[in-house]
Design a protein that fits this description.
By secondary structure, the protein is an alpha/beta fold. The protein has seven helices and nine strands. Helix 6 crosses helix 7.
Length: 246
């Protein structure tokens, strides 16, 4: 049953010890399972415009020394992506509320996460192209991004998002990309009946009180929906090994 997916994932008795003060290594904590409800009140973290490769999402170079420390390497999340609302990189509203200052993307994501508010990333064509970089999916998940909604995905990145328990969605009508405004609150509807081949609905609640309802598509099969419900592919494997019905 879905309610059993919140079971605590116990550590292996053969635990690996890592210095808690290390800035290079950090033990991974399991991501939280799906709540069992629609995702409502998501804030737009960034509306990426134009090319957004895995290197825009998770830069390499000097950041690679942190690849064993998810929290530290997450400070490079989406810092190379161009924000459609101001044409700048690494500059987004702190929590999507009018009048708030523009800050680096990771800082905005951490602010939302600390407030218990989920976020969503909006993208353009072929989002996530380039190297198959797992961190490009793990970092948004770690910093509270619940969904990525784009015109189209690079296939491997789309699969990586699924593995981390995120929603990878595409606009049924690509022109709907233009409807999304900086201060929107976004609701993803239909998740309680999430099924292969069945589109979902997304409600855009604009700051002026108007709303738009759009259709979004997905490519999840039954197994991948199981990843989403469990919180990640690894969570589902752990649950299955522990004998929990999923």
């Amino acid at each position: 049953a879905d309610t059993e997916l919140s079971v605590t994932l116990s550590r292996s008795p053969n635990a690996v010890l890592v210095d808690k003060n290390s800035d290079r290594l950090q033990l991974l904590e399991p991501f939280k399972a799906w709540e069992g409800t629609d995702l409502v009140g998501l804030r737009v973290l960034i509306k990426a415009q134009g090319k957004c490769t895995t290197d825009h999402i998770s830069m390499a170079g000097p950041w690679l020394k942190f690849r064993g420390h998810l929290d530290n390497i997450s400070n490079n999340m989406l810092i190379g992506a161009t924000n459609a609302f101001n044409g700048e990189t690494n500059s987004v509203k702190a929590s999507g509320i009018q009048g708030e200052p523009y800050v680096p993307v990771p800082q905005a994501a951490r602010t939302l996460k600390s407030l218990g508010v989920g976020s969503i990333v909006i993208g353009d064509e072929n989002y996530g192209e380039g190297s198959s970089r797992e961190h490009a999916a793990m970092e948004p998940r770690h910093l509270g991004v619940r969904a990525v909604l784009v015109k189209s995905f690079a296939r491997i990145h789309e699969t990586n998002l699924k593995k981390q328990g995120m929603l990878g969605l595409t606009f049924a009508n690509k022109a709907d990309y233009d409807l999304i405004e900086e201060d929107d609150q976004i609701d993803i509807l239909g998740l309680t009946t999430f099924a292969p081949g069945q589109p979902l609905q997304v409600r855009l609640r604009h700051a002026d009180g108007d709303t738009d309802l759009i259709t979004v598509n997905h490519t999840y099969n039954e197994g991948q929906i199981g990843w989403f419900k469990a919180g990640s592919a690894l969570n589902l494997i752990k649950l299955q090994e522990s004998g929990v019905a999923v």
